[in-house]
Amino acid sequence: MFTPEGPSLRELAVQALSSVERGYDLLAPKFDHTPFRTPDRVLEAVAKALTPLGPFEDGLDLCCGTGAGTGVLAQVCRHSVTGVDFSAGMLEIARRQPPPDGPDITYVRADARALPFGPGFDLVVSFGAFGHFLPRELPGLFGQVHAVLRPGGAFAFPVLAPPRPSSPGYWMLLGFDAVMRVRNALWRPPFVMYYRAFRLGAVLAELARAGFSVELSALPEFGERGDGSPRARLVVARRGQPAAGTVNS
């Protein structure tokens, strides 16, 4: 799962015993050589699905890490792309990446739970970051995204179908989450990363409570499960347009 350029077992242990921010600062130089980076096929599928929903002017990559998702935004946004993350180390690596052709790209260090922006974006995306937020934090997180979108803007992110209990992947993720809960019960500072805490039904309900209208579409590149349901979906949550005769704040 790790390339030879990836972190050693010792480095991973040090990172796992750090805070989330410090752990990613340490991991940043080798992050793109780990399985934690969003695979290119996911990024390409999302870009393909977003293209007919545009055009978009200004995009925000929420919890951008080393900048993999900003390439998606660069394909579908015409004016500007902003990446935001709270790890200075990850942002340093992102800024070193060759900029793709297209809009201007800026990286900003900030906490996704307290975004330093007004309603200046038409599209917000996020890839692989939601495991770092506890379920009780989702209302505040989604409220922040809603606040930085212009009326009619979209919040989009991919979700993968959870593995079946009969598959090795199910038990691997269950075991990982169990180990992290024990670690956080015994060690401070906590490292919040839970793969099974981001449940689609609860997420859709919280998005609706935050004021979004939500649509789901299959990402056909990943095929279907045995019951015919898609293996991967794109969630597109829209901020509503203000009613006629009202002034948007």
UniProtKB/TrEMBL annotation:
PANTHER family: METHYLTRANSFERASE (PTHR43591)
Stretch forming the signal peptide: none
EC number(s) recorded for this UniProt protein: 2.1.-.-
Record domain Methyltransferase: where: 60-153
Uppermost EC category: transferase
GO molecular function: methyltransferase activity
Record InterPro entries: Methyltransf_25, SAM-dependent_MTases_sf
Species this chain originates from: Streptomyces sp. 900105755
Domain of life: Bacteria
Gene3D superfamilies assigned: Vaccinia Virus protein VP39
Pfam families, per the entry: Methyltransf_25 (PF13649)
UniProt keyword annotations, A-Z: Methyltransferase, Transferase
Name of the protein in question: Class I SAM-dependent methyltransferase
GO biological process assignments: methylation
